[in-house]
Amino acid sequence: MIVTFFAALTSRATTFESQIASLCNPKIYSLCLVALSCSLLSVNAFADWILEPAADVDATYSDNLRQSGGEKDDGFQSQVGLQLRATRRSETSNLQFLSSATFLKYSGVDSIDEEQRETFFFEGRAQRVFKSGQFNLRASARRQDLLQYNRVLEQGVNPLSQTDDGTLTEDDTILDDDFVIVDDVDRGNGEELYYRDSIGVSPSYALTINPLTSIVFGYDYNDIGLDDLPANSTRQESTTHTASVQLSRKISETTSVTARLSGGQFEPEFSTDSDNYTVSLGGQKQLTPLSSITAVVGLQRIENDLFSDNSTIFNVEYRRKIESGRIYATVARSILPDSYGQQLTSDYFAGGIKQNLTQRLSWGLQVRLSRSEQFSSLQQDITRDRYSVSPSLSWGMSRHFQLRTAYRFIHNERSDRSDREPTSHRYTISLEYFPRGR
């Protein structure tokens, strides 16, 4: 089925196919296609699993592909992407996996020597209910090219998961570029083309005290590796460990509150290690059967051999299901490590809407604003601002094919480079394939 798709695409777009044909190693590409095809043939064999494969072919033009503040490099980025989403639910367990591999090629950009690149991501979640509580595990692995924007393929707009009474469930995830809505202080703060490899593991256990109260013990591990760095680069790899304990209590049918303590360590490759301690209070409110808000506010302290300092942190998330779509917004301040071995104070806003206009036509809009700056007065005083706006339009050509167009405006600013404020305009057209259809 997948082979037929690419054969049909070849006959309709010969020029574009010539770029795609040289996009990736044929052996790797064939193995991916075989694996995806086998997953389709195995649907009946794994009746308990819901398997949702997808594939896409993209072409992107940018007037400043490297987001350079000096001489701009316009050029094309073409790519082939394969994705598989798998879900298995039972009365006592829940398993969710989302994986994607992307093979891309840059063309017409003289400053990029390595034209052919590959990226992937894997996200897995597991839940298991016991008499005394619930075990949760979240694991992820990503290989990212920071000039590229990863995107989860979905046909039209999938409504948020709902319980029997129509309210939103706690494990709903708003899908966005980079898979989940997170701030990224390394985007736009340099012009180097490199790979960032990350591995994250987050196990936790929610111990049930009574039907309304639980204590959650958690641990987070995150390892960042860097590959293909220029010889003169000052970026460095890092590892982060965090242990936490959280008290949660449901005070009504629509409201719950939390109190959380955590401590951890940030270990950059060359810079000084830092210890961090956080105390926070939060709550979640079901405003209506179709909307919810979550808010957390706290104080974080960071200590190392050079300084000790405190900062207020917060996170407010709003979600609302509307007719044939959804709205989301996040406002946050957090302390985030960057690839230079520093920890930065980051203020961040992300918001958007995704909605079906007709049975075949849907649209979306994403807006992101962020500012990151030094956490301590002893660090280098550099402020980084980043703005991004991206509208998109999708048309369901048939039960299995969807055509998508998108535009992304990006603007970066750095206080130490006031004469270089890179702006870029990206235009993308995608043909997406969903073997299982609507």
Task: Please name the defining characteristics of this protein.
438 residues; mainly beta; Porin; 8% helix; 57% strand; globular; disordered N terminus
Could you explain how this protein is built, in words?
This protein has one domain (2-433): Beta Barrel (Porin). 8% of the residues lie in helices and 57% in strands. It has 3 helices and 18 strands. The protein has an 18-stranded antiparallel beta barrel. A hairpin with an 8-residue loop joins β3 and β4. It is globular. The model is unreliable at 1-45 and 158-181 (pLDDT under 50).
Q: Give, in order, the helices and strands.
A: HHHEEEEEEEEEEEEEEEEEE
Largest sheet geometry: 18 strands, antiparallel, barrel
**Rg calc:** 22 Å
Number of strands: 18
Instruction: Tell me the number of helical segments per DSSP (H or I, 4 or more residues long).
Output: 3
Helical content (DSSP H or I, runs of 4+): under 10%
Structurally, the number of domains stands at 1
The stretches of 5 or more residues where confidence is low (pLDDT under 50) are: 1-45, 158-181
* Strand percent estimate: over 45%
* Helix vs. strand class: mainly beta
Overall body shape = globular
Distance between the termini: 16 Å
Under CATH at level 1, the class stands as: Mainly Beta
The CATH topology is Porin
